[in-house]
Amino acid sequence: MRIDKFLWSIRFYKTRSISTEEIKKNRVSIGESVVKSSKEVKEGDVIKIRKNQIDYKIKVIQIPKSRLGAKLVPLHIKDVTDKEQYELLKMRKMSQDYYRNRGEGRPTKKDRRDMDDYVENDVAADFTDWDDFFGETGDDSESENEN
Fold this sequence. Notes:
Layout: H1 3-9, H2 16-24, E1 28-30, E2 33-34, E3 46-51, E4 54-60, E5 77-79, H3 83-99, H4 109-126, H5 130-134, H6 139-146
Helix pairs in contact: 1-2
């Protein structure tokens, strides 16, 4: 099976075209050599993949016939990625949460509607008639005084 199709079928990439693009960017290698999309994958190969700024290593146990369900993936590959790589990923996620907590940022539609309702209710409570506030009765009285 071609490596681009293999990585798609074991659900490492969402689409086959994304898989092909990553291979073209030299982010996938078998052993120590960078591969092309047409490279055939064999059982026992160790595939090194650079994704999300860490290096994954997977060992091919079995070649699937077609795209697999998520529960069947462990039957076909074995994850041999270094634990240091996962710790590095965990540290990056924690550092991102430091700057912005999950759920903060741009308001959702519901948040915006809640804010609009709050502002409308607040404005309605504070609303006063400006003519009454300044003691004016209207524009007619000003025009009569000028003549």
